[in-house]
Write a structure and sequence with these properties.
single chain; alpha+beta; Jelly Rolls; four-stranded antiparallel beta sheet; 3 helices; elongated; signal; transmembrane; membrane
């Protein structure tokens, strides 16, 4: 039998930091902000859609280039048309909201020029969105709760782990729902196929009997 090696507090701290590095790499692969950049023509509208789970914090930052005699309105709505954020004559700023249910939200930029003119230079728009763990400001949390850097990192990794567990639970629930739907559809198709087969057999039997009576009436067969 191998004797257990006693580790010093310094060694335990090194091991913990090593695990934190590994988990941090996983966090970078799982949680990342989405940044998009595009040009918006005069008097045109462009929308971006994304599905978000329930009770998820979403933050974003936008930057719109200025053009004379032109304005851009920003509006964020859910699938029911409820306005989550709205800003007229948007130029540069931030937004934040929390989803009440699993839904798809839509971010729309609408360019407007005087008298509806379609002439004018395109405006460059940069949009960065974050959600879930990546949207939280852990610096403010650390100041409010007086946490040490290691405790802040542990809190962030704990939130990330919870987010991953929730995502897996949601995917499992969706898989069960889809499986039940497939089984129900297969049962209905089977019953419909059996019913169709009985109908065809009945129709064929009726057709044979009808033709037999017809031929007997014409004295073509005995």
């Amino acid at each position: 039998m191998k004797a257990e090696v006693a580790r010093t507090p310094r060694q335990w701290k090194t091991i913990m930091l090593g695990w934190l590095c590994v988990l941090s790499l996983i966090a970078l692969g799982v949680a990342h902000g989405q940044a998009v950049s595009f040009y918006l023509g005069a008097n045109t509208k462009k929308c971006l859609k994304e599905e978000i789970h329930k009770d998820v914090l979403v933050t974003g930052e936008y930057d719109i280039s200025e053009q004379p005699n032109s304005r851009v309105d920003l509006k964020i709505t859910d699938s029911s048309g409820h306005i989550l954020f709205s800003k007229e004559e948007a130029s540069k700023g931030k937004f934040a909201f929390t989803t009440d249910d699993y839904d798809m939200f839509e971010i729309c930029f609408h360019s407007k020029t005087p008298f509806g003119s379609s002439h004018g230079a395109d405006q460059h728009i940069t949009l960065t969105t974050k959600r879930g763990v990546e949207a939280k400001n852990y610096e403010d949390i650390a100041k409010a709760e007086k946490l040490k850097p290691l405790e802040v990192e542990l809190r962030r990794l704990e939130d990330l782990s919870e987010s991953i567990v929730n995502d897996f639970a949601y995917m499992k629930a969706r898989e069960e729902e889809m499986r039940d739907t497939n089984e129900s559809t297969n049962s209905r198709v089977l019953y419909f196929s059996v019913f169709s087969m009985f109908c065809l057999v009945g129709l064929a039997t009726w057709q044979v009997l009808y033709l037999r009576r017809f031929f007997k009436a014409k004295k073509l067969i005995e």
